[in-house]
Design goal:
Alpha-Beta Plaits, six-stranded antiparallel sheet, 3 helices, 6 strands, about 30% helix, globular
Length: about 130
């Protein structure tokens, strides 16, 4: 069975480099992935942080979630994410799997304005959005 997956990428340090690298690595894993427009957002739960750049993406897969989640973590680390930097408010790359098929994994995140806007954009322009 094929399911649609929704992601949200975000970073607040060297954003152009991080997002470009993450998009490239995600495209290698999920060739049909589409990306919405990058959106600048205020930090959520990071009081001493720079603004974030977020981007919603979606792809289709038949692969199990247990295979996908570790690969997303690997991409975060390849983009320079270091847990110890979170204390300093630095997030080089965060990739959240918001929804896997019909299962919503991050219901609170699905309510964020930037996520709703990105999903709406991708649904409206279903033919293709690539960056």
């Amino acid at each position: 069975m094929t399911g649609t997956c929704w992601l949200c990428l975000g970073c607040n340090h060297e954003t152009a480099v991080g997002l470009s690298q993450a998009r490239s690595l995600l495209t290698e894993l999920f060739p049909d992935i589409r990306f919405g427009t990058e959106q600048r957002t205020a930090p959520i739960d990071f009081p001493n942080s720079s603004p974030f750049v977020n981007q919603v993406a979606c792809f289709h897969t038949t692969r199990p979630i247990v295979d996908i989640l570790p690969e997303l973590k690997d991409i975060e680390h390849a983009c320079g994410r270091r847990e110890e930097e979170k204390k300093e408010g630095i997030v080089r790359m965060d990739i959240d799997l918001l929804q896997y098929g019909s299962t919503v994994l991050k219901p609170q995140d699905m309510e964020y304005v930037h996520v709703k806007k990105g999903m709406k954009e991708l649904l409206f322009h279903a033919d293709t959005i690539h960056v």
